[in-house]
Write a structure and sequence with these properties.
single chain, 118 residues, mainly alpha, Multidrug-efflux Transporter Regulator, Chain: A, Domain 2, three-stranded antiparallel sheet, 4 helices, 62% helix, elongated
Length: 118
């Protein structure tokens, strides 16, 4: 996702299950109002909301925010460009998973075929 070499100024993400918006703001170097705005712009960014509509981010959300930050602030992407870039990566990930499933099913079917032939 985000190369650690380009990420020297950001703190290490602690081993926690959930992070508040304030913690994520500090971890990612982005103000809380920007995080709320990015939630509207990037549909894959969906923190858990609990009582009082408080947001709780998980580790994968923090990593995604850091990636969005890198695309926008370091690589010069627009919001639309960053959204397309992230969407393309998700499509590739899903495609790779689909290919792995197809390979696995094919191997299992070949094993069943061998058993039926004997």
């Amino acid at each position: 996702m985000l190369d650690q070499g380009h990420n020297n100024e950001l703190p290490v993400i602690p081993a926690k299950r959930y992070f508040t918006i304030g913690e994520v703001s500090e971890l990612c170097g982005v103000k809380p109002h920007v995080l709320r705005y990015w939630e509207q712009e990037f549909t894959s960014l969906k923190p858990v909301k609990r009582r009082g509509n408080r947001r709780y981010y998980q580790r994968h959300d923090v990593l995604m925010i850091r990636q969005i930050r890198s695309l926008l602030y370091e690589q010069g992407f627009t919001i639309t460009g960053a959204r397309q870039r992230l969407g393309g990566e998700q499509v590739r990930r899903e495609s790779n998973i689909s290919q792995q499933i197809v390979r696995q099913v094919r191997m299992e079917l070949e094993e069943v075929l061998l058993i039926l032939r004997h």
